Amino acid sequence: MASQQSHSSGCSSRSRGSLSQVRCYHNEIAPLRSVKHNGPAMGKRFYGCAYWPQQTCGFFKWLDHPDEVRELQMLVFEKDTTIAQLEMEKELLENKGKELKEKNAVLQDQVEELSIENNETHLAMCTARADKRVLAALALSWVFFALVM
Question: Rounded to an integer, what distance in angstroms lies between the CA atom of residue 116 and that of residue 125?
C-alpha cells in the first residue's frame, strides 16, 4: 500500500503493507481495542484515544470500517494543495514571461538602433570613397590640363 498520512481533525493514519498506525486527536498512536461488553458489537475491534479512559479526545474508529470521509477530505486537501502550488508556479512563469517579453522588446529596439547606425556608417564610408574618387578625378584633370597647356 502507498504511504498515507491524514491530519484532518487531528486524526492520522499511516499504512505500510499490512502494518497500520492510526493516530488519535492527540497525535498519539491509537491502540487497537475490542468491545468487551455483551451486545451485537461484542468482539468488534476499534481504535480509540491513546489516553482513554483518563483523558479522552473522543477519537473512535472501527477497524473494519474505513473512515472514507476523512480519506476523501485528505484527498481533497492534497488536491487543493497541488492546485495552489501549480497556480503559484503558473503565476511565477507568467511573470517570467512578461519580463522576457519586456527584455525582448528592449533588445529589438537596440538591434534596430544598431542597424540604423550600421546603415549610417556604410553610407558615410560610401560617401568618403566617392569623395576620394572625385578628388582623384579632379587631380587627374588638373594634371591633364597642365600637360595640355
Answer: 14
The alpha carbon of 93 is separated from its chain's Cα centroid by a whole number of angstroms, namely 8
Single-letter amino acid, residue 98: K
pLDDT at 120: 93
For residues 32 and 63, give the distance between their C-alpha atoms in angstroms, rounded to a whole number: 8
Q: Are 62 and 3 in contact (CB under 8 A)?
A: no
Under DSSP, is residue 50 helix (H, G, I), strand (E, B) or coil? coil
Handedness of CA 55, 58, 63, 68 (dihedral sign): negative
pLDDT along the chain (149 residues), means of 10: 36 42 88 88 86 85 72 88 97 97 96 94 91 89 86
